[in-house]
């Protein structure tokens, strides 16, 4: 029941051997050595901590390790119950967050900071960032430099876009722990979050990986600094390094798949998404990306299934969900509904809603939505192109416009010069947008306000031919699905 001195010595040797292999970047032998150290001495916390904090095991391997530990031989009955609880609580980071069940023998442990961090980590990986932030904030108040909490807390600050708080935290960490990689990781994340500071971010993240080459979160963030600049090769190189270092984490696989998807390599993207899904089956981010690949392959039903599954996971989070992060999912679900001709279920962004109105022959409403979309994003080529087609269809079908010049027909919409230049090349017959702009300026100066014409809706029997016309004319590549479901958080 008790450990012998021989077992303790052998365990220490295995732990040291594992650290040496770790320093030589031989993660396979390092993992094996740590597992052996833990089997020889189940109280060898350092080996257990290295295995878990560095994500060295997959979920299945973690389960097998827990079952193989000789707790009954090396521990008393009470200690066995406690150790099993602590190990299991630490290893189940991808499980759904739930109330922690504490063994009666150690009642009161629910307030232990390590237990709270484990619960926060489960909330983080289940995308409930606000609840995760509440828990990590409690830990940071009691222990401002809790080693296991800091990476999760920093990642949550990035997800919730709390730049000021991250700035303050990173400065404190650098002042107090300049030789700790998490300090420079925090600084790098701050510069990555504020935008247009990718060079600064890379400088500090590189320092973090120099201090500790095996620090996986810094490698992921390093990849993000290239990904936001569409430097796919450099981004994937960093993500592959993170994947080698963090075998049990699904994030490197997710981001590698994203980069392959952005380079139109859907087969490799699907392979990496499948690996990410096998590690974290409850992550709606991964479900969404699997749905995107299915959409790109023309499998609308499968895409709809994955999008709806992801939506159910989000709804389960409740009122704490950060809505803006899931706009791409709703947008893409709308496009799938459009492909499946479920027009009434299409909940999407303004341009997608406008497209649906155009398919149904409601050109005036479509023009309004495309106009609104261009107000938010003036370089949206799909909205500009569709706007031109909708205007042509609308003015051709409205009796009120018969015999009126095109430039007169467009005065009711306050288009900027950039949009007017683009529309000039789409709408026929040709017209001079500069003349339109000068006349519109004269009208504005005189204080005359033009009235919009009444809504002229198409009848239901014309929907089908129009739908076919637009599906043939429009290039689907102009309306790419949004694939990045996060702000490249680490």
Overview of this protein structure:
By secondary structure, the chain is mainly alpha-helical. The protein is built from 26 helices and no strands. The longest helix has 19 residues, at 5-23. The chain is elongated and about 90 Å long. 41% of the residues are buried. Mean pLDDT is 77; it is low at 399-404 and 433-490. This is Cell division cycle 16. It comes from Gopherus evgoodei (Goodes thornscrub tortoise). Pfam families: TPR_7.
Q: Could you state the oligomeric state of the chains shown?
A: single chain
In DSSP terms (H or I, runs of 4 or more residues), the helix count works out at 26
Distance between the termini: 43 Å
Structural class: mainly alpha
* Structural shape: elongated
Radius of gyration: 28 Å
What proportion of the residues form beta strands (DSSP E)? Answer: under 5%
> Major sheet: size, sense and barrel closure?
none
What is the mean predicted local confidence, pLDDT? 77
Pick out the low-confidence regions: 399-404, 433-490
Pfam families: TPR_7
Protein name: Cell division cycle 16
InterPro entries: TPR-like_helical_dom_sf, TPR_rpt
TPR repeats: 347-380
Chain-wise SSE layout:
Elements: H1 5-23, H2 27-40, H3 45-53, H4 59-68, H5 71-74, H6 77-91, H7 113-125, H8 129-142, H9 149-159, H10 163-176, H11 181-194, H12 198-211, H13 216-227, H14 232-245, H15 251-262, H16 266-279, H17 284-296, H18 300-317, H19 327-339, H20 350-359, H21 363-376, H22 381-397, H23 406-409, H24 417-424, H25 433-446, H26 463-473
GO cellular component, one term: anaphase-promoting complex
Organism: Gopherus evgoodei (Goodes thornscrub tortoise)
TPR repeats: 347-380
């Amino acid at each position: 029941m008790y450990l012998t001195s021989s077992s303790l010595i052998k365990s220490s040797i295995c732990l040291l051997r594992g650290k040496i292999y770790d320093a030589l970047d031989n993660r396979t032998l390092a993992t094996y050595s740590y597992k052996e150290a833990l089997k020889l001495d189940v109280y060898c916390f350092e080996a257990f901590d290295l295995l878990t904090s560095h994500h060295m095991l997959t979920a299945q391997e973690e389960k097998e390790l827990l079952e193989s530990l000789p707790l009954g031989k090396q521990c008393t009955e009470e200690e066995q119950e406690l150790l099993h609880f602590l190990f299991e609580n630490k290893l189940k980071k991808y499980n759904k967050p739930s109330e922690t069940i504490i063994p009666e023998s150690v009642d009161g442990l629910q307030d232990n900071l390590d237990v709270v961090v484990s619960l926060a980590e489960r909330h983080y990986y289940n995308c409930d960032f606000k609840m995760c932030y509440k828990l990590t904030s409690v830990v940071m108040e009691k222990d401002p430099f809790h080693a296991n909490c800091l990476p999760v807390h920093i990642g949550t600050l990035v997800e919730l876009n709390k730049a000021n708080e991250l700035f303050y935290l990173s400065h404190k960490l650098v002042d107090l722990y300049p030789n700790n990689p998490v300090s420079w990781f925090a600084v790098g994340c701050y510069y990555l979050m504020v935008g247009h500071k990718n060079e600064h971010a890379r400088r500090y993240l590189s320092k973090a990986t120099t201090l500790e080459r095996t620090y996986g979160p810094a490698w992921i963030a390093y990849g993000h600094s290239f990904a936001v600049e569409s430097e796919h090769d450099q981004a994937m190189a960093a993500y592959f390094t993170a994947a080698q270092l963090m075998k049990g984490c699904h994030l490197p696989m997710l981001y590698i798949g994203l980069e392959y998807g952005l380079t139109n390599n859907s087969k490799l993207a699907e392979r990496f998404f499948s690996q990410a899904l096998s590690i974290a089956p409850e992550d709606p981010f991964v479900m969404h990306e699997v749905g995107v690949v299915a959409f790109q392959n023309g499998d609308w039903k499968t895409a709809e299934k994955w999008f709806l599954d992801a939506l159910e996971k989000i709804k389960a989070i409740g009122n704490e969900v950060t809505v803006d992060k899931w706009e791409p999912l709703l947008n893409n679900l709308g496009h799938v509904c459009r492909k499946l001709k479920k027009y009434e279920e299409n909940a999407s962004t303004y341009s997608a809603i406008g497209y649906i109105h155009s398919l149904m022959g409601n050109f005036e409403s479509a023009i309004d939505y495309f106009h609104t979309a261009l107000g938010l994003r003036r370089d949206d080529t799909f909205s500009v192109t569709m706007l031109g087609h909708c205007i042509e269809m609308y003015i051709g079908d409205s009796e009120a416009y018969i015999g009126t010049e095109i430039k007169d027909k467009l005065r009711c919409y306050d288009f900027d010069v950039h949009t007017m230049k683009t529309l000039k090349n789409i709408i026929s017959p040709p017209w001079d947008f500069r003349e339109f702009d000068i006349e519109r300026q004269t009208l504005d100066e005189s204080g005359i306000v033009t009235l919009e014409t009444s809504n002229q809706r198409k009848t239901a029997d014309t929907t089908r031919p129009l739908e076919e016309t637009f599906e043939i004319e429009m290039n689907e590549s102009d309306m790419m699905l949004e694939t990045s479901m996060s702000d490249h958080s680490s």
